[in-house]
Amino acid sequence: MNRIRPLVLAGLLTSLPAWALTPAHTLVIAQSLDDATSFDPAEGFELSTVQAFNSLYQRLVQSDPAHPAVLKPVLAASWHAGADGHSLEFTLRPGARFASGNALRPEDVIFSLSRVIRLNKDPAFILGQLGWTRDNVGRFLTRTGPAKVKVAWTADVGPAFVLSLLSAPASSIVDARTASAHEIDGDQGNAWLKTHSAGSGPYAIRSYQPHQALVLSGNPLSPAGAPRLDTVLIKNVPDPAARRLLIEQGDADIARNLGPDQIAALQGKPGVTPLAVPSASIHYLAFNIESSNPVLKNPALWEAARWLIDYDNVATTLLKGQFAPHQAFLPLGFPGALKERPYHFDPERARAILARAGLKEVNIRLDVNNQPPYLDVAQALQASFAKGGIRLNVVPAVGSQVGSLFSSRNYEAIWTSWGPDYFDPHTNASAFALNRNDGEKTLAWRTGWQIPALNAKTLAALKQTDPARRARAYESIEREVQRNSPFVVAFQSRNLIALRSSLKGYVQGITPDMVFYDKVSK
Fold first, then answer.
1. pLDDT at 17
2. DSSP code of residue 269
3. pLDDT score of 384
4. How far is CA 33 from CA 6, 45, 204, 236, 290, in A?
5. Based on the domain organization, do 299 and 348 belong to the same domain?
6. How far apart are CA 111 and CA 60, in angstroms?
7. In this structure, are residues 425 and 335 in contact, taking their beta carbons and an 8 Å threshold?
8. Quick one: 474 and 335 in the same domain?
9. Residue 271 forms part of a structural domain
């Protein structure tokens, strides 16, 4: 793959603020990249990396952004389910090639899917739901012809659910020969792929400098066709006010993750189109039961917290249009999502709940991403919780640090968000309502919540094949989490972004990975 020399990249970055207009063949994006830790699809699980995977990689099947429940063939030309009900056979797309020029083979599919399990990074639980382990995964992925591969599983799930899993970013198909050429100590190319790419997407990583910039080069060999713009430059701009100025002045083509103040300031500005893009991201408060702070184990705290979020004020006054109050872990638009909102801001009720439980002078550390809207909401929670007798000590940090605290259970409380990994209700149910203590760092595990009965209900819903009954099963699970859990789900978000008005062809769907730059022109 092409690499940009460090001096050239440095010149490109330092010249960016001085541009009157962005270069004709370069898409310039201003956003925060501070959460990025790995661009390996078997490892990357942060917003910045997930947003990049559709540019760098393709899957056998992928969701249609306009109709996410519809799976379209991408690197697969076709597929059929096996008579055993526990297998799928795929015929690969003829002539498909990676950015390296290597042809797509069944071996690449086998390598890619099995390495997710064998590396056992954060996304591994997605494919682990099929019953795959490091020891057995090789038996379930087989080459059945020059352009055919069979995917089998032992889990009690049907082909439709498996296709949903294969549409997840973790199921991206990696060029096995390129990755293996950069293998170090049996890591299957993981160290190299943290900062490089080996996919068939419309772009490839040219250079990545952590906390500075990600530069992508167009891939003319992509099965989807060459992108319309040669280069994508994603520049790390941590300050949302600075991102707003860049888009307003024409020094950026897209500004991502803006706050409501920035969007309001851009309204009516010539050459700029502000957008509020519907999102499946759920924003919630999580308490760590395993923390040394004993109050966090008390369900009375969880109940009181539900009455201490000023849902409507945060959504309409603080974050104008960016959030809608939503109190269930399935986002609206997913089968089984609850619409009812049983809680509202009532600090007196919260005080009474805490008093009955004997909880006084409650002090809790609240870790939060230092980017909007997270920090804005955390500060609003600090004020509203104080009215109910709970002191929140807000501690902002970069996204990657907050994520590490959460995944290691080294926190007291966290205000954060969750986006689905694939378009199926089990993606969120398996995060919020499943903790089998089997090594999968689900959200329930990260809070230390032990839920054997809810585990059984969640797994039973997964096996249900009737769509209406399955939706009702998830509604029941959501109500349990809504009533009594260390999670306080509060909002469903909309992504606030701004585009230069001359930009055409940008596509962003409801799930975090549905970001597409290949059809963009200007």
1. 42
2. -
3. 98
4. 19, 13, 17, 5, 30
5. yes
6. 13
7. yes
8. yes
9. no
pLDDT, averaged per 10 consecutive residues of the chain (522 residues), comes to 36 45 94 95 94 97 86 96 95 98 98 98 93 97 98 92 94 98 98 98 97 97 95 96 96 93 92 92 97 97 98 92 93 91 98 97 97 93 98 96 96 95 91 93 97 96 86 96 98 94 94 93 95
Beta carbons of 246 and 18 less than 8 angstroms apart: no
Q: Where are the alpha helices (DSSP H) in 39-158?
A: 47-56, 106-119, 124-128, 137-140
Whether residue 458 is found in the same domain as residue 512: no
Q: Residue 414 domain-assigned?
A: yes
The CATH number assigned to the domain holding 201 equals 3.40.190.10
Residues 186 and 294 in one domain: no
CA–CA distance, 81 with 399 (Å, rounded to integer)? 41
Owner of token pair 């203590």: 437
Q: In total, how many domains does the chain have?
A: 2
Q: Domain of 52?
A: 6-218+503-516
- Do 445 and 512 fall into the same domain? no
Query: Residues 6 or more apart from 185 whose CB is under 8 A from it?
Result: none
Alpha helices by DSSP H, listed for 220-346, are 240-249, 260-266, 299-306, 311-312
**What's the rounded Cα separation, in Å, for the pair 14 and 239?**
17
Q: Could you give phi then psi for residue 33, rounded to 5 degrees?
A: -115, 10
Amino acid at site 83: A
Instruction: Count CB neighbours of 138 within 10 A.
Output: 13
Question: What is the reported pTM?
Answer: 0.79
- Is 159 found in the same domain as 90? yes
Other Cβ atoms less than 10 A from the Cβ of 326: the count is 23
User: In this structure, what CATH number is given to the domain that contains residue 426?
Assistant: 3.10.105.10
Residues 101 and 171 in one domain: yes
- pLDDT computed for residue 226 by the predictor: 96
**116 and 208 inside one domain:** yes
- Residue 367 inside a domain? The answer is yes
Rounded alpha-carbon distances, angstroms, from residue 477 to 61, 418, 452, 481: 29, 17, 13, 7
- How many of the other CB atoms lie within 10 Å of CB of 318? 18
State which H helix or E strand residue 12 sits in: helix 6-15
**Residue 54, both tokens:** 């559709």
Cβ burial of 449 (10 Å; 0-12, 13-18, 19+) is: buried
Q: Do residues 124 and 43 touch, judged by C-beta distance below 8 A?
A: no
Q: Tell me what pLDDT residue 15 has.
A: 43
Q: In whole angstroms, what separates CA 97 from the centre of its chain?
A: 27
At 333 the pLDDT is 83
- Asked whether residue 332 is domain-assigned, the answer is yes
